Amino acid sequence: MAMNVASSSGGGGRRGRRKPVVAEINVTPMVDVMLVLLIIFMVSAPMLTVGVPLDLPQTQAKSLENNDQKPIQMSVDIKGKVFINDAEVAINELVPKLKAITDARGGLEERIYLRADKKADYGTVAKVMGLLSGAGFKKLALVTEADQG
User: Which positions make up the signal peptide (predicted)?
Assistant: First the structure.
C-alpha cells in the first residue's frame, strides 16, 4: 500500500522561491501608440498647409524658382475676400499691412504670390493688382495650376 507523506518543508515547494518584482516600465504599448500617431500626423500634415481653398486656373506657364524664404501669399476667393497668407484683410487695409510685412522681410523687392479663384470677380483681382503696383511692389506673380490637358 502506498501512502502519501507530506514533506515538512512547508508544502508545495514554491513558497520560498518567489520571483522578484520587476521594476521596469513596459514601453512596447507606448511605442505602438507613438508610431500610430506619427503615421496619422504624416498623412494629415499636407492637408493642413492648404491655406485659403481656391480653384486656381490652369495654364502651361513654367514655375518660378523658389528662394529659401517663405513667400508672401495673397489670395482672392470666389466671394471677393482678400487674404494675406491665411488672414483676411479688408481691401482698404491691404497696402499698409503688406508694407509692414515686407519692411520686416525684404522691402518692396519682396516677391508676392497672388492666388485668385478662377471664378473670382476679375475687377477685384485687378483692383488688388493695381493697389500693389501703385504702392511700389515690383515683384508680383500670379499662381496657377499646371494644365492637365
Answer: none
% of residues, the chain, pLDDT over 70: 70
Q: Which helix (H) or strand (E) holds 101?
A: helix 94-105
Cα dihedral 149, 120, 45, 147, rounded to 10, equals: 10
Measure the CA–CA gap between 6 and 148, rounded to whole angstroms: 89
Whose cell is 508676392? That residue is 112
Q: Which residues contact 27 (CB under 8 A, 6 or more apart)?
A: none
Determine phi and psi for 120, rounding to 5 degrees: -70, 155
Closest CA to 76 of 107, 109, 14, 120: 120
CATH 3.30.420.270 holds for 79-143: yes
| Residues, the chain | 149
Cα dist from 61 to 22, 34, 146, whole Å: 66, 43, 7
pTM to 2 decimal places: 0.54
Per-domain residue ranges of the chain? 79-143
Q: What pLDDT, in 10s, does the model give residues 62-81?
A: 665 665 567 788 888 888 88
Q: Which helix (H) or strand (E) holds 4?
A: none
Q: Is 146 helix (H, G, I), strand (E, B) or coil?
A: strand
